[in-house]
Design brief:
- With about 210 residues, the chain is an alpha+beta fold.
- It folds into 2 domains: about 140 residues, MM3350-like (Structural Genomics Hypothetical 15.5 Kd Protein In mrcA-pckA Intergenic Region, Chain A, Roll); about 30 residues, no CATH class.
- It contains 4 helices and 12 strands, in the order ββαββαββαβββββαβ.
- The longest helix has 13 residues.
- The structure holds zinc ion (4 copies).
């Protein structure tokens, strides 16, 4: 799997599917996994605009509010130390966390902005991919996600396990186990390589 890999895994059936084809896959796979009557759920994709290899597909209940999506994004991708976050629409119009996800997103293909931490900001784009029949135990859950990208060490071709919180802003600072200790910025600056757009930022160490 290369750095540019755009494959992900469907949580319902473990299939490895490309980023574009995944939406079609989920529309078939999710209803097929249900024994009873499927609920109509929103299929929502979160992406990191600067890192196309990072994406999450979620099913969201029609009744769910933005705050439950915020919680899921924090838990899966973002939470380091309880920063503020916000959803916003066109013209940076702020949207209340108590707005229903369906009302905020509106029509299929429409998008919302989202920001976590207004200092060292991680920005995401949230889009509605359509409506899908799915089992909804919870108001929102992840149904597919990108494969963890493998980044080579800056100094050799071993996979990196640490990222430097200074150098990450220049898209470097990846260290394998051997080259972590001698990294010039010091070991205190190193954070684990994780499957998240917040990798290397503000002490983020990955999902709990
Ligand atoms: Zn599947
Ligand atoms: Zn933080
Ligand atoms: Zn190395
Ligand atoms: Zn560094």
């Amino acid at each position: 799997m290369s750095r540019g890999s755009l494959f992900g895994v469907c949580k319902a059936c473990d299939a490895r599917v490309g980023k574009v084809a995944m939406l079609r896959h989920l529309r078939k796979c999710l209803p097929a996994k249900i024994a009873g009557v499927p609920s109509e759920a929103l299929l929502v994709r979160a992406q990191a605009p600067g890192a196309p290899m990072l994406w999450l597909d979620c099913v969201v209940s029609q009744e769910a509010k933005l705050k439950v999506l915020d919680k899921l994004l924090r838990r899966t991708w973002l939470e380091c130390c309880g920063h503020l976050s916000e959803f916003y629409g066109a013209g940076r119009r702020k949207i209340s966390m108590n707005t229903r996800v369906g009302d905020a997103l509106g029509a299929e293909g429409s998008r919302l902005g989202y920001e976590y931490d207004f200092g060292s900001t991680t920005a995401l784009v949230i889009g509605l991919s359509g409506v899908v029949g799915a089992e909804l135990g919870k108001p929102v859950r992840v149904v597919a996600r990108n494969e963890p990208p493998v980044r080579p060490c800056d100094l050799c071709d071993q996979p990196a396990i640490m990222i430097c919180a200074e150098c990450v802003y220049e898209d470097r600072g990846f260290c394998c186990a051997l080259h972590a200790e001698p990294h010039p910025c010091g070991e205190d600056m190193l954070l684990p390589v994780v499957n998240s757009p917040r990798m290397g930022v503000c002490g983020y160490t990955g999902e709990d």
